[in-house]
Write a structure and sequence with these properties.
By secondary structure, the chain is an alpha+beta fold. The chain has six helices and six strands. The strands form two sheets. A four-stranded antiparallel sheet has the order 1-2-3-4.
Length: 153
């Protein structure tokens, strides 16, 4: 897990197989450990760990994960709420350190220190993040946190 916020792994092109079969939006390749961590037991039973899997970040799409055989896993098959698909204030933006939209907003409004980005970066530096098992997108949340904070300004 030490590379979860520094890895720049590139997904290979698979002649359209990276497009979500539900919404046709390009998915982001995720490691199998992410699905093993996020899928409910009944969904996990149908996981083919030998295939490439992708995360669909489309807010309008009910599919969270899909694979190269077009097998999909929907919101109801995931253990946690998915930041990209749920706009409620209580959903984490940072799953490792429990920074919800509400906590980020309060921190900014009250000018608390360290701010969410500083806090997360400090923990990344200490090798404490576990994005591939905590975050449904399977990668670092810093971009999501930054985007949300910028929307508040």
């Amino acid at each position: 897990m030490s590379d979860c916020c520094t890895s720049k792994e590139k997904a290979s092109e698979n002649s359209g197989s990276e497009l979500c079969p539900s919404c046709n939006v390009k998915g982001k390749r995720v490691k199998i450990i992410t699905l093993k961590s996020m899928l409910k037991p009944t969904a996990l039973e149908s996981l083919n760990a030998d295939l490439i899997h992708y995360f669909c970040s489309s807010e309008e799409c009910n599919t969270v994960y899909f694979n190269t055989d077009k097998k999909t896993y929907s919101l109801s098959e995931i253990k946690v709420s998915v930041h990209h698909k749920d706009n409620s204030l209580t959903v984490p933006v940072c799953y490792c350190f429990d920074w919800t939209r509400e906590k980020i907003k309060q921190s900014i409004e009250k000018g608390l220190s360290p701010n969410p980005l500083e806090h997360i970066r400090e923990n990344i530096k200490e090798n404490r993040c576990g994005c591939e098992v905590n975050n449904p997108q399977g990668s670092c949340c810093l971009g999501n946190v930054t985007t949300f904070m910028n929307q508040l300004s």
